[in-house]
Specification:
This protein is α/β, with parallel strands linked by helices. Helices cover about 30% and strands about 15% of the residues. The chain has a domain of about 70 residues: 2-Layer Sandwich (Nucleotidyltransferase, domain 5), CATH 3.30.420.270. Helix 2 crosses helix 3. The model has no long low-confidence stretch (mean pLDDT about 80).
Length: about 140
């Protein structure tokens, strides 16, 4: 016998509010714990060589070039148009310092021409002291 003939049956409902709260907590946790890459820095894999470690000096200009020929002077990304423009950037970075050391940080897969461009720009800027950075074997 069916005694509930006149009553309509209630459909079960799912409450989404607690699930949304949990998802928001997970989202906040992911945002807080995620590390973000710095896109303004160049990714450089230095070539390897054996040698003595030099002591850092105050009179240095660091010039970096990565494998895709993106240049940075003192960790500030510089758009390379030609050697003369790079020489002007080096002179600006050198300021009033007398004969700074140009430190070339070139990626192991950077084209040889990119290193020559830096050396030529240093010559045009009047800087004769050039050194290279490598990683130890």
């Amino acid at each position: 016998m069916n005694f509930q003939r006149g009553r309509s049956r209630e459909e079960p409902e799912i409450n989404l509010i607690p699930m949304i709260d949990v998802l928001l907590v997970i989202l906040i946790f992911m945002m807080v714990t995620t590390t973000y890459a710095r896109f303004s820095e160049l990714q450089i894999n230095l070539p390897q060589a054996s040698g003595d470690k030099s002591s850092p000096q105050a009179n240095q200009i660091s010039v970096s070039v990565d494998a895709t020929e993106h240049y940075a002077v003192n960790n500030a990304v510089t758009v390379f148009t030609d050697v003369d423009a790079l020489a002007q950037v080096l002179q600006k970075a050198g300021g009033s310092r007398k004969d700074p050391v140009i430190i070339i940080n070139a990626d192991a897969k950077a084209p040889h021409q990119a290193v020559i461009n830096i050396m030529e720009a240093a010559r045009i800027a009047g800087y004769a002291r050039i050194t290279f950075t490598t990683s130890r074997k």
